[in-house]
Design a protein that fits this description.
With 796 residues, the chain is of the alpha/beta class. The protein has 4 domains: 221 residues, Growth Hormone, Chain: A (Up-down Bundle), CATH 1.20.1250; 185 residues; 43 residues, no CATH class; 296 residues, Vaccinia Virus protein VP39 (Rossmann fold). It is 62% helix and 10% strand. It has 28 helices and 14 strands. It is elongated and about 95 Å long. The protein starts with a helix and ends with a helix.
Amino acid sequence: MNRFMGFLPVLLVLFVGSGCAALIYEVVWFQLLQLVIGSSAVSLGVLLGTYMGGMCLGSFLLSYVVPARRHPFRVYAAIEFGIGICGILVLFVVPFLDRLYPAIAVPGSAGILLRGVISAMCLLPPTLLMGASLPAMARWIRSSPAGVSWLGFFYGGNIAGAVLGSVLAGFYLLRLFDMEVATYVAVAINLVVALLGMALAWLAPYEREPEADGVVAVARPAGAWAVYLAIGLSGLCALGAEVVWTRLLSLMLGATVYTFSIILAVFLTGLGLGSSAGSVLARRSRHPRVMLGICQFLLAGAAAWAAYVISVLIPKSGFDPTIPVNPLPVFRMDLLRAAWAILPAACLWGASFPLALAALATPREDDDSGALVGETYAANTVGAIAGALGFSMILIPSLGTQAAERWLIALSVLAALIALAGRVRIVMLAASIVAAVLLVRTVRPVPWLAIAYGRRMNQYVETAGKPLYIGEGMNASIVVSELTSGARYFHVSGKVEATTEPFDMRLQRMLGHISALFAARPESVLVVGFGAGVTAGTFTLHPVTRRIVICELERLIPPATAQYFNRENYDVLHDPRTRVFYDDARHFVLTTKEKFDVITSDPIHPWVKGTATLYSKEYFEMCKRHLKPGGVVTQWVPLYESDPETIKSELATFFEVFPHGTIWNSDASNRGYDVVLLGQTEPEPIDIDALERKLQRPEYARVVASLNEVGLGSALDLLSTYAGRQDELKPWLKGAQIHRDLNMRLQYLAGWGLNYNHPELIYRNLLMNRGFPKDLFTGSPESIHVLRVLLDGQVQ
């Protein structure tokens, strides 16, 4: 033990570095692979299952693959070096797969299997090594209960590094640089750790018995099965809770990349603190298995506490996150609220691991401690995989988050009873069941206002009206509400995405009609995002439209909005020309062989984590490749809840692909709120008179009626919404950051500028650069004159 204590500080440094690199890799790899296989719940489940499955296998197999006579420090150094090599390989392999995958992608279960194969190719080699790192180093410690209790400090140091990695990646490396830089930083950390490991191997002698070429026999105490099962259930609850609480907290704090980094950092901090505390308890307690059982009982109460904080205390806190323009005060408050909710439970889950190790250890010091750690870690990770997938893909979609939180309490009590198997009396069993029932009954549903308005929920307590529909799906939570005025609102995961209010109807109708009227012949249409169906519904009015393809991520949305917005969307869901594909839009565009005359995109705000993939240069290039001759792409851009840098990045990125693209303003008062970007494969002048003649044809009567409802009933009305193009905006866009797949710059810009809410100022600056584009509009002198007067009047 003295030999161990002498190297403890350096060992902790090694594990901190290893954990830091691992979390940077995890963030980067998930972003990279989502660009290939998509970001739907199924794709994320495949990624998470592969990542954690690799770590599980690596921890379990180490003792069977690497002889115990190998110096632990040298093995650890080799593992870290291997992880660094894999990190570089993944960075260069994924872009190749991005080109290969569309050619071999198939739908259905075979497609899911293919996604799993691609994930395994990229993630299994490095995650096998990551999983093996803790068992490898564990061989430096004897396998007695007192010895293995020190592994909690290793585990805690590794998690402390993971906290550092999640914050470093989310708030610095990916915000200011890109995925390449982040990867190289992680690789550098791996190399430093590997070199330190080799230096330690040279300084610290290590000897094992000559049996070491085979597998070292491992003894386990009686009832070990109960400990394995209990720690497995503990892992299931931990990852299930992370899924549930991340989903609910991201509603209330705003689903930015920074929010997810904060939640992950808090959760990992709790695991690290708990692991260190659990190590102390394991060394001092003569009955670590009993302590493990008590931990699980306490976790039932901690889960109930988290549910209370999230559903009651945070909604009633009165904190308005939209007031400070500087995001740092908001981040500090988000950190406190997340810690208040989930830190107690996370600490207890962290303490469970070293207690389980101590409960499984025997007095025989010649046992392979690496095998002990590997088996325990594998049991915990198998449970974690089951929890993450089961809660996200089955429990929440079928029963909802309230029921999921109740299951957390019940399963924690079950884990406690299993850990204490053989020690539980009838009275204690009855008391446990009663306590579980009482705790379950305390769990309240999250207020519908939180699902509907998210971080702004306290602003709408008096004016929100009533919910008509509430649903929690696999990918999103949705609400349909109705105000006292009769206006209906459609909400997705804390954001208003569509309404029947005049200003929103104008945008939604305009997005569809401009696309159809400016395309050469809009026979086939791809609509990204069903929403309330209003944009998709406008295409049903155009006489030449033959096929309407809608790509929607969440299955709950089309039937819900078809019921409550069927008049506004012309019942598009049941139109015989309509076909809905349930998939992540980027993945659909990447893998479809079909080409379209119109691709119109109305995604969620770019500050929502994961949505920025629908604003990148590479995505727009994909859309352009899927256009027929004479086709158009339109893209919604919100000027509200966004700062100038974010808007400039969105416009500059679109214009990189569509250099002759144009901007159209949907705000009837010309103050600026939403704009529509329009790009064409072959830019053609817009003939004002020809457009007017088209609208006057009998077959376009329904189109004109639809436009009249939103004040755009004539060609001049529609064209007077013109707001500019790249040539005019070059001075304003100078220095704008181009949003690319490898930097995902936009989601970091947008999340940082979320509280900047001056759309009129942004639009005014944009409009100051606009002139009258003589080469864009053609027609009679009278029509040109009237349009010029209308546009000039907007600038004054």
